[in-house]
Amino acid sequence: MQRNPFFAPLERPAPLLPTYAVYLQNAAGLDFGSLPLGAGMPVGEAVLKAAGASVSLLAVAFAFSVVAGVLLGVIAARANPPRVSLWLAPLSTVGLAMPSFYLGTLFVVGAVAMAGRFGADTLNIPVAGYGLDAHLILPVIALMLRPTVQIAQMAAHLLADELGKRYVVTAWAVGNSWGRIRWRHAFRNVLAPIILTMAGSFRLLMGEMIVVERLFSWPGIGRLLALILIPSQGSHVEESLYFLHPSALAATLTAFAFFFLIADLTASGLVRALAPHLRRAEESQ
């Protein structure tokens, strides 16, 4: 084998297309290669384990965002006359202007300040680590703020417009209560666009999850992606093994794409089921 003056071996690289075909074949069987010896597990196993942790965090944060956002939107939509309550505007402004990483940083700094001033036993809520218990509180609150106000804002404006239509006046005239009109008639008619807003909020959760998981040391795919792209600080040998590892990066991005795909397909299916006129329009084309 010839060598250059800098003692680097001069080898012909393997052909790109056959190599990529072999990689795709292995990836179809969840074989994304292996990490260096110190990591302790293959790439696919590490990503699946991290994805499981992220699913639990995303599920809780998204569920609370949907419930809180819909309730706030329904409360903010006034019926007589149809309008949106004034208190929703400043709430939406503050919520949309406060990204999750900023709120998470405030939580971490506040916890450290309280521990330094009053002792480590003062704060009973864990600031870092994994667990389906109190460990969820701070990262869930940090993640759910912006999606909640997004859903609330959309639901309130859609409901306010819907409550101004003639059938609402007719339903009120025949003796239906405003609560029945809101939930059984008006909310059902605007549910499809609200679901699309929820899908967008889920994508926002996925994006902000990367920084939030790193802040709170939550062992999900967001933190794994951060370990791959950002050099490890200090003497964390195991974490440094992921830095710029090509197979780990490809597997992690594949997991993110899978989450986005599932969210979009679920939202599209629900909208088609809840809005028959859209399905009929597509079938007639």
Summarize the structure.
By secondary structure, the protein is mainly α.
Can you give a write-up of this model?
The protein is mostly helical. The protein has a single domain (42-275), classed as MetI-like (MetI-like fold), CATH 1.10.3720. It contains twelve helices and two strands, in the order ααββαααααααααα. It has helices spanning 16-28, 43-76, 88-97, 100-118, 137-162, 166-173, 178-189, 191-215, 221-229, 237-240, 246-274, 276-284, and strands at 77-79, 82-84. A two-stranded antiparallel sheet has the order 1-2. Strand 1 (77-79) and strand 2 form a beta hairpin. Helix 2 (43-76) packs across helix 5 (137-162) and helix 2 crosses helix 9 (221-229). The termini are far apart.
Topology, pairings included?
Blueprint (H helix, E strand, L loop, with lengths): L15 H13 L14 H34 E3 L2 E3 L3 H10 L2 H19 L18 H26 L3 H8 L4 H12 L1 H25 L5 H9 L7 H4 L5 H29 L1 H9 L1
Antiparallel strand pairs: 1-2
Helix pairs in contact: 2-5, 2-8, 2-9, 2-11, 3-5, 4-5, 4-8, 5-8, 8-9, 8-11, 9-11, 11-12
User: Secondary-structure element order, as H and E?
Assistant: HHEEHHHHHHHHHH
Principal-axis shape: flat
- By DSSP, the count of extended strands is 2
Count of structural domains: 1
The CATH class turns out to be Mainly Alpha
Terminal-residue CA separation:
64 Å
Strand order of the largest sheet: 1-2
State which percent range the strand residues make up. Answer: under 5%
Q: Architecture, CATH level 2?
A: Orthogonal Bundle
